[in-house]
Amino acid sequence: MKKLVLLFLFISILHAKAQQKITWPHHKKAVIVLTYDDALESQLNNAVPQLEAAHLPATFFLTGDINSQTIPRWRALSKKGFELGNHTIYHPCLSTDDNPTHSDDYTPYGIIKEIDVMNHFLFAVDGKNTRTYAYPCTETTVGSGKDYVDTLRKYSLVKYARVGGDVDAVVTDFKNLDPLQVPSYGLDDNTPGDKLIAFVKLAEKTGGMGVIMFHGIGGDYITTSVKAHQELINYLKKHRKEIWVATFQQAMDYATAAGKNPQIKH
Hints:
Blueprint: H1 2-18, E1 30-37, H2 41-54, E2 59-62, H3 71-79, E3 83-86, H4 108-126, E4 132-134, E5 141-142, E6 146-147, H5 149-155, E7 160-162, E8 170-171, E9 185-186, H6 193-206, E10 209-214, H7 226-238, E11 243-246, H8 248-260
Parallel strand pairs: 1-2, 1-10, 1-11, 2-3, 4-7, 9-10
Antiparallel strand pairs: 5-6, 8-10
Helix pairs in contact: 2-7, 6-7
């Protein structure tokens, strides 16, 4: 009987450790990661000024659509602490009218090669070797449904990768989190500010990491209004003592280390 009690206690301790929450830097309640896809000019023109005014970092997942006019602006942002991530050159997705490059024409190796070339392209922009990635259209398959996550893992081209998700996509289980399939809150057109803030509050309540996926800000497509974006930025600025706003790589670097050693504190 005594052995059974000891075994039960041992299992309970292991379970408690497995459920132990990460202690975020400076004992903040949660981490929020702001990500922006597709190298859109509305991000440069509308989102960036709001972020800079609030002194908040963010991650921009760039495609080959960057050009001679925007590259100097992206390079300047990198020097200010913003992260430039890989979103492929041609943004291949399932055949649709608004995604002219069809992913069903790709093989897993083909898209890996494209990611590799985009890494070189981005190195020419910011001079950095370590890169994160966002799957175009949040799709982890190409060709006839061939998953390329493990192929991406095999070639070690990126350190972390972001997929899609919904309003409940707050990460709390870091022990079992696949660093190449990190969920995010993918927005619909005209998502209001109060819904964005509700997602942040969910991250605060659960002590987790909330990654938000933006596209257009006040323009382009899958558009979040300038007003709604500013409402979110205002909330994050007001609650900066409780919320750590980090780039995707910063947050994942910390979460990965802390997930292995929950005693990490700063």
